[in-house]
Amino acid sequence: MPAILGTGEHRYRVVDNFAKLPDGWTLTDVASVAVDSKDRVYVFNRGAHPMVVLDREGNFLRSWGEGLFSRAHGLHIDADDNLYCTDDGDHTVRKCTTDGKVLLTIGIPEKPSPFMSGEPFHRCTHTALSPKGEIYVSDGYGNARVHKFTPDGKLMKSWGEPGTDPGQFNIVHNIATDADGWVYVADRENHRVQVFNGEGKYETQWNNLHRPCALCCCGGAKSPTFVIGELGPGLDINRNVPNLGPRLSIVDAKGNRIARLGGENGPGVASGKFLAPHGLALDSRGDIYVGEVGVTNWKASFGDQEMPAVVRATRCLQKLERVRE
Q1: CA distance 125 to 105
Q2: What whole-number distance in Å separates Cα of residue 218 and Cα of residue 170?
C-alpha cells in the first residue's frame, strides 16, 4: 500500500515512481518544480536536461534548457504560464516560455556581484511576482537581500543585510507573495519565514520551523495557505535527532500550523520519507509536487552511507496526491 502522510483534511498519498523518463535519463537534484494551467509539471533539475516537462501522471512530454542553465535553483510560474528560472550557478533569472524561449534575462551570466555587497546578484535563489507583475528575487547565498524589479527587469529597490534581527537574513533561500502583495521570505538558517509589505517593511515572522527551504503560497486569494519544505539537520552532532525533518508543514496566512507531513524520524528513500525538500508546487487538484536536492544533501544526511542509484535517477521528485474521502 502507498504511504499516507498527514491527518484529517490534509492527507496525502505518496505516488511512488512518479517520473517516467526516457531510458538512461536521470534528474539528479530537482531544485524546483512548477505546474502550468494545463497541469503540466516543469521539473527544474541539475541533470543533463535541465527542464523536464511531465504530464500529471508523470509521463515524459519534452525537455529543454540544455546548454542554457548552469545550476538550477528556483522556478516560479505566472498566470500566463511564463516560467521564471533562477540559476544560482550563473547568477541570473530568466523568464521563459513553456517551450524554453527566453523572454527576459536579469543579471549578467557568470558575473556575480561582490560577496555580500547587496548588489544583484550573487547566487540568487528564487523569484515571486507582485499583483502588478513586479519581480521579487531572493539573493541568496552570496548576498542577504531581496530585490524588487519592474516587470521588464529594471531594479526598483532592495532590502536586507546579514544577521539575525528582523529584516536581516542568514541564507535568504526562497520567496513567495500572495494576492494582497505581502512578501514571504524563507530565511533558512535563521529557522524562520519573514513577512514584509511590498516595499520591504518588516511586518512579522513565523517561527517553529527547521531550516525552511521551499515555500509555496496556495489556497486562494481570500484564505491563502502555505506549504513549507523544511530541511533536516545539517550537522553531524544532530544528524540522528528526531522531529527535525526533513518534512513539509502547511500553515495559514498567520503562520499557524495546520498540518505536518513526515519528518518524525529523519530522512530516507522509503515511501513516505523525504530527503531534502527544496521546491514545491500544487496542481489544480491540490496535489503537491516536491523537488528535492537529495544528491547534494546526501552526505549531510547520511554520512558515508552509499547512495542508492534511484536517488540520482528519479527519487528527487515526489508527487503527493491529496486524499479525498
Answers
A1: 15
A2: 25
Burial class of residue 11 in the structure, from the number of CB atoms within 10 Å of its CB (0-12 exposed, 13-18 middle, 19+ buried): middle
CA–CA dist 118, 96 (Å, integer): 26
Residue in 56, 97, 90 with CA at minimum distance from that of residue 72: 90
Question: Among all chains, which residue has been given the C-alpha cell 520567496?
Answer: 175
CA 188 from centre of chain: 12
Residue with grid cell 496542481, as numbered in its chain = 283
How many Cα atoms sit within 13 Å of 89 on the Cβ side? 12
Sequence letter at residue 159: W
Output the CA–CA distances (angstroms, integers) from residue 160 to 15, 176, 196, 199, in the order listed.
39, 16, 11, 12
Distance in angstroms (rounded) separating the CA atoms of residues 149 and 155: 4
Provide φ and ψ at 301, rounded to 5°: -90, -35
CA distance 277 to 92: 22
CA 298 to CA 47: how far, in whole Å? 16
Listed residue (137, 102, 103) closest to 122, CA to CA? 137
Instruction: Pick the closest to residue 120 from 93, 152, 102, 150 (CA basis).
Output: 93
| Peptide bond just before 140 cis, omega within 30 deg | yes
Note the pLDDT tens digit of each residue in 200-236. Answer: 999 999 999 999 999 999 977 777 999 999 999 989 9
State the maximum Cα–Cα separation within the chain, in Å, rounded to a whole number: 54
Task: Give the pLDDT confidence of 247-271 residue by residue, as tens digits.
Answer: 999 999 999 999 999 999 999 999 9
Q: Which three cell numbers stand for residue 12?
A: 496525502
C-alpha–C-alpha distance, residues 234 and 200, integer Å: 30
Closest CA to 246 of 218, 226, 268: 268
> What is the enclosing helix (H) or strand (E) of 299?
helix 298-302
SS3 189: helix
Q: Distance (Å, rounded) from C-alpha 269 to C-alpha 277?
A: 13
- The three grid cell numbers given for residue 202, joined into one nine-digit string: 518588516
Query: Cell numbers of 106, please?
Result: 536579469
pTM flag (> 0.90): yes
